[in-house]
Specification:
6-stranded mixed beta sheet, globular, Transposase, 11 helices, DNA-binding
Length: 431
């Protein structure tokens, strides 16, 4: 299984300037591809194939030929994704926007990797604009342009051996350049284990609730929800202030920079919480020796909440905002690939009414608060744990029995919430 890791490239003024120049050149390649492919479509009513795009791109770009081909591959993949989306959403647009900077994709042939350094190959052409116009150095326009092979060297700070790395990208993130690379991670084999099933229920108040037959773990999602709500309110306030300023003025630029910082900071916080949440879940599954995980599919729950009359009656303005800010897709994606690395087979199931179905009497009862109480057998169980177990029962058999333990956790335990006895081990580890 391939996963993506990254490390920050240390700041050096000359290095960063070279990488920025390569980003501009990569943007020129992307803009040329988009312009020519779109023009060909309107003229011939069909798209250029990936092979034709790569053949046309054999021009004098100051990038390695494999990097130019990688940009063409990304355009073809983007176009195919939009084609699939347009089957259900006609508002999805093919690539059209002009870019001024673009990430630098690197194939294996365009970089040399050693233990200490990573050498990125590029080319520089010997012609200047004046030479081209006066034809001082070229006797025939059909001759190949003379080029000089150059390179950009960055330090190798990866924790893995990158000899088998076939693809990487250099991206601008958080005010610095990052080297993102794909490495293959071996998946564990759980075929010798006895089959054990667990279900996962995604939510807002509790980000993930996972349960087996007798044990359950519930990880809180209140921190992620509060960050999302604060970001929405702060961005709305900044947008309102920007609308009162003249576009391009100094005060307008201050608000714009503040908005960008707020978005970046909140994205970093949410991503960290998502990783910590899914790590707790996967550790629980590994300890319980779970072989099959069934996740509830909640995609599309936020769509049509204003136009659909049935959804509109159930949800008010505040609830619609909460659903639109819910990051359940990212949590599901992180949970899926982390579980697959551990050898756990992950599937999805419809999660409608799973929190209201009673496993003891088979009836359906409305849950009150965070607890589900069966009106027939008077059994009490956490509604998210009940939903997780019922999701697993839609795909596999799971016995109905009382739970031994239900553990509630936070993705991050802040020091102000810990008792004095819990703070002592932290002080010792810090020392």
């Amino acid at each position: 299984m391939f996963v993506t890791h990254s490390f920050q490239i240390p700041y050096d003024s000359n290095l960063y300037e070279e990488l920025r120049t390569m980003q501009r050149e990569a943007a020129s390649v992307w803009n040329d591809i988009v312009r020519e492919a779109t023009s060909y479509y309107f003229a011939c009513n069909k798209w250029l194939s990936k092979t034709e795009i790569q053949a046309i791109r054999k021009q004098t770009y100051n990038l390695h030929s494999q990097t130019v081909q990688a940009i063409a591959d990304k355009y073809a993949a983007n176009r195919e994704t939009i084609r699939q989306l347009r089957k259900t959403d006609k508002k999805a647009n093919y690539p059209w926007r002009r870019k001024y900077y673009y990430c630098i994709p690197l194939k294996k042939a365009s970089m040399d990797i050693s233990t200490d350094t990573i050498t990125i190959k590029k080319v520089d052409y010997g012609f200047s604009l004046s030479d081209l116009l006066t034809k001082k150095k070229k006797k025939n326009w059909n001759d190949k342009f003379p080029k000089q092979h150059t390179s950009v060297v960055i330090p190798n700070r990866s924790e893995e051996h990158l000899n088998a790395c076939n693809y990487a990208e250099i991206v601008w993130r958080n005010g610095a350049y990052w080297f993102c690379y794909a490495v293959q991670v071996p998946e564990q084999n759980l075929s010798a284990y006895e089959k054990k099933v667990a279900g996962g229920d995604l939510g807002e108040i509790h980000a993930v609730a996972v349960a087996t037959e007798d044990r359950a773990l519930v990880v809180s999602g209140r921190a992620m929800r509060s960050i999302s709500q604060f970001r929405a309110k702060a961005l709305a306030d900044l947008s309102k202030k920007m609308s009162r300023c003249k576009k391009g003025s100094r005060q307008w630029k201050r608000y714009k920079y503040a908005r960008n910082r707020l978005r970046q900071t909140s994205n970093n916080q949410l991503e960290a919480l998502e990783h910590k949440t899914t790590k707790e879940i996967v550790n629980f599954l590994e300890v319980e020796k779970v072989t099959h995980l069934v996740i509830g599919n909640v995609s599309g729950i936020e769509k049509g909440t204003k136009k659909n009359e049935q959804k509109k009656r159930k949800q008010n303005k505040v609830r619609r905002q909460q659903l639109s800010l819910w990051n359940q897709g990212k949590i599901k994606q992180k949970l899926t690939y982390k579980a697959k690395i551990k050898g756990i087979i992950v599937t999805e199931a419809e999660e409608s009414y799973t929190s209201q179905d009673c496993p003891f009497c088979g009836g359906r009862h409305r849950a009150k608060g965070r607890m589900f109480i069966c009106s027939v057998h008077k059994t009490e169980i956490h509604r998210d744990v009940n939903g997780a177990q019922n999701i697993a029962r839609k795909k596999h058999h799971m016995a109905v029995q009382p739970l031994v333990s239900v553990v509630f956790k936070q993705p991050v335990w802040y020091r102000r919430f810990l008792s004095e006895k819990q703070k002592i081990p932290l002080l010792r580890t810090n020392l």
